[in-house]
């Protein structure tokens, strides 16, 4: 909550500063041009804020979670698109109103005669393309790798937009203080991305030298991969977190898959457990011992750091048991574990979970059966855990199950701040 409030406060403070510099720079006589300049400034500020959201800064990620940061980034991205479209329309029509040119020829004239405008047009075109491929109807039809490659052009658009602002931005050039402010905003945003997305992962992988130490089949379609390396006790990973894993073989090095730790980090090894849901996860069972690993992370706010109560309920669905099993290992205080699967044979890691629950004095309930009727409806939850409203609740499982459970917890009266979950599908 503190980190979230801090982000909102940071954005609000920067909006106030931008407005101050905007008014200090003076107004044009044309109202459309005034609106164009204002929407352009807000578009630039949102673009810088957007970079901060996806910089994967450890302090923010541990407190908010990559899934929420990514969701905010998505909506901020569409806000950038609309702000910059409005900027282009207002500016073009504003100058056309003062000249004898129609809007199309006015835009062409501005691009040909005013420094930086052509770069801005190209930047806007890139952002429009990225906006289109990020819309849900298009995103569902694109492979993640294709979408991600197109998304990388955002950085080209950022550079082009910044040089446009430097060249013709009235607020940017109105005073030395305004100039320093905008250089600071863009500097912090770009440095955050460079540090969080490039420098930190490279440094950690160089330091820890990760390799596959064992591959264990847990069932016909679930496999665990053990990873060792140097100084793993210095890696700031916690139970419940995940990494983006790249296994450096000739046919897999370019694939990054988000998998949770399925055991609490012990300073000697890391373990991930995955179900064969696609080509990437299905190929894990064929990894050879000694394969080099490049891991980005740890990521995620699904940890005991956010506990508000001394006792907890851990609810897992299917292979979502992996971070739940790791959390149980790290938790202190009484815990109730509910493991929801279709059939007994789908309960991977159940043996480990049972042993761990016995050792820690936790209650373990295996709930089996088809999705309908709901085996974890409000009445069933309160039967299994009568004091559930006095506990923290950690959830991990398929999206339909998670959505249903969040509704059930709300219905039985569990306070929102006591419900902890992370939608790992967004992490990739």
Rg: 25 Å
Oligomer: single chain
Largest sheet, spatial ordering of strands: 9-8-7-10-11
Residue-averaged pLDDT: 89
Tally the helices.
16
Outline the fold blueprint.
Layout: H1 2-24, H2 31-53, H3 58-64, H4 66-97, H5 103-113, H6 117-134, H7 136-139, H8 144-151, H9 154-168, H10 170-173, H11 176-208, E1 211-217, E2 222-228, E3 242-247, E4 257-260, E5 269-275, H12 279-282, E6 293-299, E7 312-317, H13 321-330, E8 335-341, H14 350-360, E9 363-368, H15 378-384, E10 392-396, H16 399-412, E11 419-421
Parallel strand pairs: 7-8, 7-10, 8-9, 10-11
Antiparallel strand pairs: 1-2, 2-5, 3-4, 3-6
InterPro entries: FAD-bd_8, FAD-bd_FR_type, Fe3_Rdtase_TM_dom, FNR_nucleotide-bd, MRET, OxRdtase_FAD/NAD-bd, Riboflavin_synthase-like_b-brl
Keywords: 2Fe-2S, FAD, Flavoprotein, Iron, Iron-sulfur, Membrane, Metal-binding, Oxidoreductase, Transmembrane, Transmembrane helix
Transmembrane segments: 7-28, 34-54, 75-96, 116-138, 150-168, 180-200
Commentary on this structure:
By secondary structure, this protein is of the alpha/beta class. It folds into 3 domains: 1-204; 209-299, Elongation Factor Tu (Ef-tu), domain 3, CATH 2.40.30.10; 312-421, 3-Layer(aba) Sandwich (Rossmann fold), CATH 3.40.50.80. It is 52% helix and 15% strand. The strands form 3 sheets. The protein has a 5-stranded parallel beta sheet with strand order 9-8-7-10-11, with helices on both faces. Helix 14 links the parallel strand 8 and strand 9 (363-368). The model has no long low-confidence stretch (mean pLDDT 89). The chain crosses the membrane at residues 7-28, 34-54, 75-96, 116-138, 150-168, 180-200. Pfam families: FAD_binding_8, Ferric_reduct, NAD_binding_1. It comes from Streptomyces caeruleatus. One of its GO terms (cellular component) is membrane. Its cofactor is FAD.
């Amino acid at each position: 909550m503190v980190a979230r409030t801090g982000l909102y406060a940071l954005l609000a403070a920067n909006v106030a500063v931008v407005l101050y510099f905007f008014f200090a720079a003076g107004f044009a006589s044309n109202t459309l041009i005034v609106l164009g300049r204002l929407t352009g400034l807000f578009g630039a500020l949102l673009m810088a804020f957007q970079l901060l959201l996806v910089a994967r800064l450890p302090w923010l990620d541990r407190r908010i979670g990559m899934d929420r940061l990514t969701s905010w980034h998505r909506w901020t991205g569409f806000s950038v698109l609309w702000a910059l479209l409005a900027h282009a329309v207002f500016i073009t029509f504003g100058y056309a109103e003062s000249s004898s040119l129609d809007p199309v020829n006015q835009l062409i004239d501005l691009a040909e005669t005013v420094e930086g405008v052509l770069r801005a047009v190209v930047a806007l075109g890139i952002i429009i393309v990225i906006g289109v491929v990020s819309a849900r109807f298009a995103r569902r039809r694109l492979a993640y790798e294709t979408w991600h490659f197109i998304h990388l052009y955002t950085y080209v658009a950022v550079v082009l937009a910044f040089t446009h602002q430097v060249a013709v931005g009235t607020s940017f050039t109105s005073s030395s203080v305004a100039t320093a402010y905008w250089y600071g905003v863009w500097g912090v945003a770009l440095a955050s991305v460079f540090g969080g997305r490039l420098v930190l992962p490279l440094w950690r992988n160089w330091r820890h030298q990760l390799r596959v130490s064992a591959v264990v089949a847990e069932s016909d379609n679930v496999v665990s991969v053990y990873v060792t390396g140097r100084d793993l006790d210095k890696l700031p990973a916690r139970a419940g977190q995940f990494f983006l894993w790249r296994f450096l073989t000739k046919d897999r090095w370019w694939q990054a898959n988000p998998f949770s730790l399925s055991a609490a980090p012990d300073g000697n090894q890391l373990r991930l457990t995955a179900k064969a849901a696609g080509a990437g996860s299905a190929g894990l069972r064929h990894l050879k011992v000694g394969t080099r690993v490049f891991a980005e992370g740890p990521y995620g706010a699904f940890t005991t750091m956010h506990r508000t109560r001394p006792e907890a309920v851990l609810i897992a669905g299917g292979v979502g048991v992996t971070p739940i099993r790791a959390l149980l290992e790290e938790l202190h205080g009484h815990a109730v574990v509910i493991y929801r699967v279709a059939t007994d044979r789908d309960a991977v890691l159940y043996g480990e979970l049972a042993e761990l629950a016995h050792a820690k004095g936790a209650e373990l309930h295996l709930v089996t059966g088809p999705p309908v009727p709901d085996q974890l409806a409000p009445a069933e939850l309160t039967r299994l855990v009568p004091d559930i409203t006095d506990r923290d609740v950690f959830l991990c499982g398929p999206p339909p199950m998670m959505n249903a459970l969040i509704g059930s917890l709300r219905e039985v009266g569990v306070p929102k701040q006591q419900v902890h979950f992370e939608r790992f599908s967004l992490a990739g």
